[in-house]
Design goal:
By secondary structure, the chain is an alpha+beta fold. Helices cover about 55% and strands about 15% of the residues. It comes from Dryobates pubescens (Downy woodpecker).
Length: about 700
């Protein structure tokens, strides 16, 4: 058992172009920033007095906080992983439980730190880097047999959802299976309906992570353009066993991305976003209550059950787990108060001590073998006492005798009659089973007789006709909505072309020609001029998957009207430029990989050629030694030594190029995942926009 406090780190988000700091953090006059690895780092926030508050101002100017390490605005993702996540991952591989969670206000960089960005390969967060590190170590260690599973839980508005359920293809969060909390008598938490997916390598684990990220709740708020509106817990379950050993080690690593707190009075959100903000702030309030209770000594009750998040993270906050917290800070002037609150919360978390235990248990299969051996010994002792060797099953003669005894017992009307089969547990069990079968058979025969007298009133044809009519009405309503949306889009495109033509004619020909052009445009109201613009970028649409909601309603085919609307929506979408850039970068990486592959083949051919020359040289020297032996033939052959040195250099070059090719393969796979994620986001955005247009038309 190891007792250690929760490790707390801080990461400062870089400022935007229009943002300014409220004071000084770290160095400078009155500030101190110490990042020595052997000692705690200090963060000091200095807020000068504001003259608007008056000359008599008793507000505190300086705030100082202690952290394990502070990452400034220039720190890269790989440095954060090596300092924070790598030690936790090593302890998980050794058999201990681990947790890493990020805490801070909305827009302070929690999701970027945990999951990473979708723009560059170097922006990968803690989760993909941890998966890569774990699977690389599992491949290197051949002394144990490892099994790895992953799960992805989302807590949205105090309801849990399984983001990796394979039986559901959900287009909305409400379509995912809900996860409920169950507690056993030992107060261990179990999550019902949360699936564990087997991941045998890094590629499968990243695919599951990408599947879960596409189903997360993301919305635009005044504080963040892509704010996560839910708490997400990505868990890696690892079990290991040495061959021939009866001990199994089971460990798990929670990687938690908490939703950010926000002040409603500052952001001014309303409606659905306001409801989400209420649930987020409430769950974070309950988390702070648990932290305060754990920090107090001699506290008898810890309020874990107040929220689902604190219930799931019970072991991580005050149990058997190595826990690490990342406090994300934004030193923008308007966010400095929330950053100070985050630092205060981190100082309370640093006071908590967890008792970490190595998770080992006995293999159940070994227990089964031991119990079977004990049963066989008891059977031998029983046969020695009774003088009869009992088998596991009754003979056919014994079964016939028992059937006759049971039939006689059931036909006997005497209430005092008994069924005596001796002190044999096999015969007693058979008698109970036989009586149960006879009772069930008689009950089924009675129900069959009753069902024959009941009238059958089912009109299958009428129900089928009503169902078909309902489907046709739905298809007709969908076509009407598509026509109305396309008409509105045509009007907008026509208005744009008219305005452009109006400005061109006014600059060249004057007022008279302007009036003529206006009348000409009004006469040509039926011109299909905007149809060409709707089909400009059709090459990219062929690579986009069919939209789920359109596939369900139209039998797997997208209508022509919906395709044209999707082309216009895709052309104006903000992610289109990023998709094209990623496609160009992916094409470059494929070309580099192909070029490296050709070079590898050339180097391999040269190595084989040199090896053949060395063998030929040895054969020639052996033949000379047989025909004309001399002392010169026993000396070192300089030509052969030169050929061997050339072959060693070629092998070294081959290893370097092969390592480079392997790195290119990992980068290409990651870029492909990023493109799939952006395409899925584009599809979801179009689905939301299309549904909203249909609702507006109905209203």
């Amino acid at each position: 058992m190891v007792k250690e406090t929760i490790r707390v780190y801080a990461r400062v988000k870089p400022l935007g172009k229009r943002q300014e700091t409220a004071g000084r953090t770290g160095g400078g006059a009155g500030g101190d920033l110490d990042n020595d690895e052997t000692s705690l780092s200090s963060l000091e926030v200095i807020m000068p007095h504001d003259l608007a508050d008056g000359f008599v101002n008793n507000k505190r100017e300086s705030y100082k906080f202690k952290f394990q390490k502070i990452f400034d605005q220039e720190e890269k993702q790989d440095v954060v992983f090596d300092s924070i996540a790598k030690p936790v991952a090593e302890s998980v591989l050794a058999g201990y439980n681990g947790t890493i969670f990020a805490y801070g206000q909305t827009g302070s960089g929690k999701t970027f730190t945990i999951t990473g960005g979708a723009e560059r390969y170097s922006d990968r967060g803690i989760i993909p880097r941890t998966l890569s590190y774990v699977f690389n170590n599992l491949q290197k260690d051949s002394s144990k047999v490892y099994t790895t599973h992953v799960s992805y839980l989302e807590i949205y508005n105090e309801c849990g959802y399984d983001l990796l359920d394979p039986r559901h293809e959900a287009s909305r969060l409400e379509d995912l299976p809900k996860v409920t909390i169950m507690e056993d008598p030992d107060q261990n938490i179990h999550l019902k309906n949360l699936s564990l997916q087997l991941a045998s390598n890094e590629e499968e684990a990243l695919n599951l992570l990408f599947l879960g990220d596409t189903n997360r709740m993301i919305a635009e708020t005044p504080m963040n353009q892509a704010s996560t509106r839910s708490h997400c817990i990505f868990t890696i379950h690892i079990s290991s066993k040495e061959p021939g050993s009866a001990t199994i080690r089971r460990s798990k690593l929670h990687l938690v991305d908490l939703a950010g707190s926000e002040r409603v009075a500052k952001t001014g959100v309303g409606g659905h976003l306001l409801t989400e903000a209420k649930y987020i702030n409430l769950s974070l309030h309950y988390l702070e209550q648990v932290i305060i209770a754990l920090a107090e000594k001699n506290r008898s009750h810890i309020p874990y059950r107040n929220s689902m998040m604190t219930s799931v993270l019970r072991d991580s906050l005050g149990g058997n787990c190595m826990t690490t917290m990342i406090a994300t800070l934004s030193i923008d002037k308007r966010n400095i108060d929330e950053s100070i609150s985050t630092c205060r919360f981190a100082q309370r978390v640093a006071l908590i001590k967890n008792e970490v235990v190595l998770n080992e248990e006995i293999d159940p299969r070994l227990m089964i073998v031991q119990l079977q051996k004990e049963i066989q010994e008891l059977k031998d002792e029983l046969a020695l006492v009774t003088g009869k060797q009992r088998t596991s099953e009754l003979s056919q003669e014994e079964l016939l005798q028992l059937d006759e005894l049971i039939e006689t017992f059931l036909q006997d009307n005497d209430p005092d009659s008994t069924l005596d089969v001796g002190a044999d547990i096999r015969k007693i069990k058979y008698c109970f089973l036989r009586v149960k079968q006879l009772m069930k058979h008689s009950k089924m025969s009675e129900e069959k007789l009753l069902s024959q007298h009941l009238p059958e009133e089912k009109d299958i044809g009428k129900e089928a006709a009503e169902e078909e009519l309902k489907k046709l009405k739905e298809i007709l309503q969908q076509r009407d909505n598509e026509i109305n949306i396309l008409v509105n889009m045509l009007k907008k495109e026509k208005k744009k072309s008219q305005n452009a033509l109006f400005q061109l004619n006014a600059a060249s020909c004057g007022t008279t020609v302007l009036e003529q052009s206006l009348s000409l445009n009004l006469d040509e109201s039926q011109s299909p001029s905007c149809r060409f613009s709707l089909k400009e970028e059709k090459d990219f649409s062929s690579s986009v998957h069919r939209l789920p909601f359109l596939s369900r309603q139209t039998g797997g085919k997208m209508s022509l009207g919906c395709q044209e609307a999707f082309e216009v929506f895709k052309r104006d979408h903000a992610d289109n430029i990023t998709i094209e850039d990623n496609k160009l970068l992916l094409k470059q990486r494929f070309a580099e990989a192909k070029h490296l592959g050709e070079k590898l083949n050339e180097v391999r051919n040269r190595i084989n050629h040199l090896k053949g020359e060395i063998i030929q040289r040895r054969i020639q020297r052996a033949a000379l030694a047989v025909s004309s032996p001399s002392e010169e033939l026993n000396t070192l052959d300089l030509v052969e030594e030169k050929l061997r040195m050339q072959m060693e250099e070629e092998k070294k070059s081959y290893k370097e190029m092969f390592g480079h090719l392997k790195g290119l393969k990992i980068e290409i796979e990651h870029l492909q995942l990023l493109m799939e994620k952006l395409k899925m986001k584009l599809q979801k955005d179009f689905e939301v926009w299309w549904s909203q247009e249909a609702i507006n038309l109905q209203v």
